[in-house]
Design goal:
The chain has six helices and three strands. It is mainly α.
Length: about 150
C-alpha cells in the first residue's frame, strides 16, 4: 500500500491518501474561517446572541442553510473553475471527471453528497483509497470523479 500509485492508463497519477488528507486539512481550516466570518456577519440579526432553537427557531434553519451554502459554494467555485481548491493547489492535486474534464455543478453536488457518505462509517470511504486499484475513494467512484496529482 503506497501513498502514490503508478500512473493510470491515460498518463495521470491518482492521488494517494496522504496528499488528499493534507489538502483536506488545509481546506478545512479555510472553510472553518469562512464559516466563522459568516457567523459573525449574522450576529447583528440576533442582537449578538447565539442562535438557539428556543429563541429563534426559524433563524436556526436559515443559519444552517447559509452554512451549507458556504461549504457548497467554496468547493463548487473552485472545482468548477480550476478543479482545485487552495489546499489542493498546495498539494498539486486536481479533481476532475472520469473523462478528464472539469466538474459541473451537478458533479460538485453529487461528489459532496457522496463524500458525506464516505465519511459516515468512520471515514472508511476515504480510507478505501488504500485498497482501490485506482486509488479512488467511495465518493470518487459514486460521483464518477477522480483526484489526480499534477506534474511539477
Amino acid at each position: 500500500m503506497t501513498s502514490e500509485p503508478d500512473a493510470a492508463t491515460d498518463g495521470t497519477t491518482p492521488a494517494g491518501l496522504l496528499r488528499r488528507l493534507g489538502a483536506m486539512v488545509y481546506d478545512a481550516l479555510l472553510v472553518l474561517g469562512l464559516l466563522m466570518v459568516v457567523t459573525a456577519l449574522l450576529l447583528p440579526f440576533t442582537g449578538g446572541e447565539a442562535i438557539v432553537p428556543e429563541r429563534l427557531p426559524v433563524l436556526r434553519y436559515v443559519y444552517r442553510l447559509v452554512l451549507l451554502g458556504v461549504v457548497v459554494g467554496f468547493y463548487g467555485l473552485f472545482w468548477t473553475r480550476s478543479g482545485q481548491t487552495l489546499g489542493m493547489a498546495s498539494w498539486r492535486l486536481r479533481v476532475e471527471r472520469e473523462d478528464g474534464r472539469l466538474l459541473g455543478w451537478s458533479d460538485v453536488l453529487r461528489r459532496l453528497a457522496w463524500a458525506v457518505v464516505s465519511l459516515l462509517p468512520l471515514g472508511l470511504g476515504f480510507l478505501w483509497v488504500l485498497f482501490d486499484g485506482q486509488s479512488r475513494a467511495w465518493h470518487d467512484r459514486l460521483s464518477h470523479t477522480r483526484v489526480v496529482v499534477l506534474p511539477k
